[in-house]
Design goal:
single chain, about 375 residues, alpha+beta, 18-stranded mixed β-sheet, 7 helices, about 35% strand, globular
């Protein structure tokens, strides 16, 4: 094989020949253009999950952030990753998976998320193809995932040999946390935003309110404006989560084309989350939250399917509210999101101890 040759003498192998530091094997995927670097097994995380009688996934998320953050930085930041890289650590068994086929910790440039729809769509395929579901069924298999926000179910096509597309998932109950909230944005004045929860919280508003067009404005301008909205909302509105204050944080802002009323035509948005990271997909948890807001406002009905387009890649997700629910004090809905996830390869990453940038750097 070419990987074993390398143009040198006979019997030579590509370096590193005997890595002395950290070695990380990954499965590479993307959903709607948004990357997902899957770590199928992280022994240190498994040991942390099993310690002390077993940790919940939320507790494991805190533990990994405190003790294993160098793994996230090594894989997500440059030179192995980039400013838009996203990752997931697969967690199997124990309290962290809580009876699901797998648990997942979500990694991004600034830290750890509570929910990620594009990752769930990809992990659904991964779970079937890598044997995490004992007896997949045709033509579709339900894959139970435990996310930090709670249980999520992916429904994955299965032909008896391998997984396929499209994948769909049902998330935790989604709800409108606030609507028509007046927020003062430095440099833009007062705007009106909605805050929706789809496993994590987002602020939503039309780009037009900021003097921009989500389809034609420069991405840099959209990112700057969305980030200003996120920071302003954090300062002017206090979030609460029905089950855990660990989940009561604003993940980002989604700028839309303002087309919230039901239509057969796609509606376009861009999601800016974490530290000005831009989602290349329409954003699965964002679609979940936006559907919940539209349902709350009476703009859509149960089982009315809407199509959402990413302004960055043009990729499409669909979403619909499939069931009413109650979540704490909120009238909520279970939302189904559908999209396509694809494999792009596998990788083995090494860390040499003498490398001064061994755990990566973040460059914007």
């Amino acid at each position: 094989m070419a990987a074993e040759g390398g143009g040198g003498g006979a019997g030579r192998r590509l370096p590193p020949h005997s890595p002395s530091g950290l070695v990380l094997q990954t499965v590479e995927m993307h959903t709607g253009g948004e990357p997902l670097r899957i770590i199928p097994r992280l022994e240190a995380a498994e040991e942390a999950a099993a310690a002390g009688g077993g940790l919940s996934l939320l507790s494991l998320r805190r533990e990994v952030a405190a003790t294993l953050d160098h793994v996230r930085r090594a894989l997500v930041h440059e030179p192995r990753g980039h400013a838009g890289m996203y990752g997931a650590v697969v967690v199997r068994g124990g309290a962290a998976a809580a009876g699901a086929h797998l648990g997942a910790l979500f990694l991004h440039g600034a830290g750890y998320s509570a929910m990620c729809g594009h990752a769930v769509l990809a992990l659904g395929r991964f779970a079937l193809d890598y044997g995490l579901v004992a007896a997949p069924s045709c033509p579709e298999t339900a894959v139970r995932l435990r996310c930090p926000c709670g249980p999520v179910t992916a429904f994955v096509p299965w032909d008896g040999r391998c997984s396929g597309n499209p994948v769909r998932f049902h998330s935790v109950p989604a709800f409108a946390a606030a609507t028509d909230l007046a927020v003062d944005i430095p440099g833009h004045g007062k705007v009106v935003v909605d805050i929706g929860y789809g496993g994590t919280f987002y602020a939503f508003l039309s780009a037009e309110q900021l003097g921009l067009d989500v389809c034609s404005s420069k991405t840099r301008d959209l990112v700057s404006a969305a980030s200003a909205v996120t920071e302003a909302v954090k300062k002017q509105f206090e979030l609460h989560h029905p089950e855990s204050e660990d989940l009561a944080f604003l993940y980002g802002t989604i700028l839309t084309d303002g087309k919230d009323a039901f239509s057969e035509e796609p509606t376009t948005n861009i999601c800016v989350f974490a530290d000005e990271q831009v989602d290349r997909s329409p954003t699965g948890s964002g679609v979940t939250a936006r559907i919940a807001l539209q349902y709350h406002k009476g703009l859509i009905q149960l089982n009315q399917t809407r199509t959402f387009r990413s302004s960055t890649t043009g990729s499409l997700f669909t979403g619909k509210a499939v069931q009413e629910a109650k979540f704490g004090k909120y009238n909520a809905v279970v939302v189904e999101v559908s999209g396509e996830a694809f494999y792009t390869g596998t990788a083995t990453f090494t860390v040499e101890e003498e490398d001064p940038l061994k755990y990566g750097f973040f460059f914007k």
